[in-house]
Amino acid sequence: MTLFSEKMIQRLEGERIVAGFSIEQVEHAVPLARALLTGGIGAIELTLRTPEALDAVREICSNVPEMLVGVGTILTPETAKKVKATGADFGVAPGMNPRVIRVAQEVGLPFAPGICTPSDLEAAIELGCRFVKFFPAEASGGIGFLRSMAAPYKHLNIRYFPLGGLSAENMEAYLAEDHVPAIGGSWSVTPDLVQNEDWAGITARAKSIVEKREIKS
């Protein structure tokens, strides 16, 4: 059983950019999501690094249904269950935990484990994963390393979601790869803009990023 449907991957491929961020105050969640949408970014990865995170996910899922809502930092099977209950569209993790993958399968949560070596990748493939998070992308060797690692598995149609060290300067190189439907990164949402509730600033930042992305035909 694969954890990401082809339909979900195609939707990510249409978006190309997934904005990653944490939420410190639940009341920031909805205006932040709406600001990103206004700027043309329709997919997010809200990380579970604050006590408010799950409530923030619920708020966005309930009030901004147009947003493709991903949840990051899913480290335990119990957390995978909680994320599914929020109504989130998908989940990702920094590492490859077989127990989390199995529970995500059981509850029907599209889930991408984190991998950064061929051994990680083969363990994920063994458990039915065909869409994986390549993390930390730049620190692991960047686009050159990803190409080399992916080559022996090309016939399996594995797709990769790079995160970690991505920026406006290197995003186009990743998006040019056929096996990369989308990339993620925190450069699209800076903490100071959120703390200052500068939603117009976030919209402007999103627009500048969207102008650089290349939509695959």
List keywords for this structure.
TIM Barrel; alpha/beta; about 45% helix; three-stranded parallel β-sheet; about 220 residues; six-stranded parallel β-sheet; 9 strands; globular; 10 helices
Tell me what the structure shows.
The chain has 217 residues and is of the alpha/beta class. The chain has one domain: TIM Barrel, CATH 3.20.20.70. The protein is built from 10 helices and 9 strands. The protein has helices spanning 6-15, 29-38, 53-63, 77-86, 98-107, 118-126, 142-150, 171-175, 191-195, 199-212; strands spanning 17-21, 43-47, 68-72, 90-92, 111-112, 114-115, 131-134, 159-162, 183-185. Strand 1, helix 2 (29-38) and strand 2 form a beta-alpha-beta unit. The longest helix has 14 residues, at 199-212. The radius of gyration is 16 Å and the shape is globular. 43% of the residues are buried. The mean pLDDT is 95.
Strand pairing plus helix content: what structural class?
alpha/beta
Radius of gyration: 16 Å
The averaged pLDDT comes out at 95
| Overall strand count | 9
Q: Helix-strand pattern, N to C?
A: HEHEHEHEHEEHEHEHEHH
Form type: globular
Give the SSE layout.
Blueprint: H1 6-15, E1 17-21, H2 29-38, E2 43-47, H3 53-63, E3 68-72, H4 77-86, E4 90-92, H5 98-107, E5 111-112, E6 114-115, H6 118-126, E7 131-134, H7 142-150, E8 159-162, H8 171-175, E9 183-185, H9 191-195, H10 199-212
Parallel strand pairs: 1-2, 1-9, 2-3, 3-4, 4-5, 6-7, 7-8
Helix pairs in contact: 2-10, 4-5
